[in-house]
Design brief:
Order of helices and strands: EEEEEHEEEEEEEEEEEEEEEEH
Largest sheet: 7 strands, antiparallel
Number of helices: 2
CATH class of the largest domain: Mainly Beta
Strand order of the largest sheet: 3-2-8-9-11-5-4
CATH topology of the largest domain: Thrombin, subunit H
């Protein structure tokens, strides 16, 4: 017998759409002091051409293309043409939907911890639209580097470039959580995608520092 219908919460890897019609990916869902939050890029969660105004985010429900409200962006690292971006991260409060904390869409194991990139041949992966994409050979970029964000030139520094080894980098992957698998089982979040050079390279900030900055800023 089938069980009663239930609503699924937001997972890392879910598609998001902002109130300014920008879109991206949930990098992580989590709770703090009993409140649910989701994390993505600042350029996904904020209207950058509009001066970085916070947006409201919604979930694009897998398999249905229905839009389900999540809640407002309550904190971001900020992006503007006049400042150098050392991160690209925003957090929305999940007022209208449950969160599946530290769960990754279509991955059976939850996130076991956070870390950063290791220069060299280490292999990594991220989930997007239910498909695993692989990348490797992370190299640091000191910067600053000019990157176009919705028609605004932003100076980025302190990020990493990884080579795609399965699948292609593409628009819409912004906010995806890049992971590695330790000891064959442990899933470790290492980077937050914010851009790339399609189809061969993806750009990301180290995740441990990004998450610590965002988490500590929340009440």
């Amino acid at each position: 017998m089938l069980g009663a219908p239930t609503a699924f919460g937001v997972n890392a890897g879910n598609f998001l759409i902002a109130s300014d019609q920008n879109y991206g990916v949930c990098g992580l869902s989590f709770t703090k002091n009993g409140v649910g939050y989701i994390l993505t890029n600042a350029h996904v969660g904020c209207n950058i051409p509009g001066g970085g105004t916070p947006c409201s985010l919604s979930l694009l429900v897998p398999g249905t293309n229905q839009v389900s409200p999540v809640g407002p962006v309550v904190w971001s690292s900020g992006l503007s043409a006049g400042q150098i971006a050392q991160n690209d991260i925003a957090v929305a409060r999940a007022d209208h939907i449950a969160v599946d904390s530290y769960q990754i869409l279509d991955v059976q194991r939850s996130l076991d911890g956070t870390s950063h990139f290791v220069q060299g041949g280490t292999s990594y992966w991220f989930m997007w639209n239910g498909v695993e994409f692989d990348c490797a050979n992370p190299e640091p970029v000191i910067g600053p580097v000019s990157i176009d964000v919705e028609g605004i030139t932003i100076q980025y520094e302190g990020f990493w470039v990884l080579e795609m080894t399965r699948g292609a980098s593409a628009p819409g992957q912004s906010g995806a959580l890049i992971c590695r698998t330790d000891n064959g089982t442990n899933v470790i979040g290492c980077g937050l995608v914010f851009g790339g050079s399609a189809p061969n390279r993806v750009f990301a900030f180290p995740f441990d520092a990004a998450f610590e900055q965002a988490y500590s800023a929340l009440p």
